[in-house]
Specification:
alpha/beta; Rossmann fold; 35% helix; Pimeloyl-ACP methyl ester carboxylesterase; signal; AB_hydrolase_fold
Length: 331
Amino acid sequence: MKPYLLLLLAFTLPTNCFSQDKLMPLDKDLTQVNYPHEVKFLSFESQGQQLKMAYMNVVPAKANGKTILLLHGKNFNAAYWEETIAALTKKGFRVIAPDQIGFGKSTKPEHYQYSFNQLAENTKAILDDLKINKVMVLGHSMGGMVASRFALSYPELTEKLILENPIGLEDYKLFSPYQTVDANYKEELKKNFESYKSYQLKFYYDNKWLPKYDRWLNLLAGWTLHKDYPIIAWNAALTSDMVFTQPVVYEFKNIKCPTLLIIGTRDRTAIGKEKAPKDVQPLMGLYNELGKKTQQAIPNSTLMELDNIGHLPHVEDFDRFIQPLLVFLER
């Protein structure tokens, strides 16, 4: 029996702290949630099991011949690219926006060895199925690590790379002790509406909450109210282990394509920060410094710093995010 099943019977969740309007229990496949565009599924075999990967394939009214792949972060799914998709398709770009395995509407496996190489390969399978042989790749947060691995693994496919406040700009193992998957899982089971909101207020929005943030918070918190939550938490624990143990920072020098870094400099996100020594924690996740270091590490890269913006530029201040992105894509 798997760890998430062993703890299921003992797992109880207080409901009195979930007072947010419109918050509802959400199953593991988000069947009650409508994405901004039609969701299709690629069925494939991976690691001896049948999986389904959800994605949106949005074709513009007047195509410019270019395709952009949008890769979501760890606490999100492809739906949060809604405004970005609208702006890109208006300019003629075709947009492919998948939910990675373990996220959104895609399969949440009971057994899976997560790696950035595996996620990149899964993502390429969608492009192969759609017969797309050249893409620009935009990754946010954990999606930035997936995007970096994709560019490194498939340089012939990757025309341009955009990293929006990616995690993994530093090797977290140098700062914080390793935490086992089982320990990660126990931490995931404790999460709820209040803990998610507290974290996002601190790292994303500088303690200033706006109604437009509710939608993305509620997708996470809604999961914690559903009986499916243990399998979601188990996959979240596995992906946390992947982020911590599989740094891409040492390979930035090998990225070949033109690269744009869009960095909200207020961001202080760092995996494992809460487990690091107190005197080390302030040294982690300094995006005002990490952006510059990364630009120096990646050949043919450009840095666009967004002052007073946190971990989620395309939600917090979309206009400041989209302007440099479009300039980079169209040049």
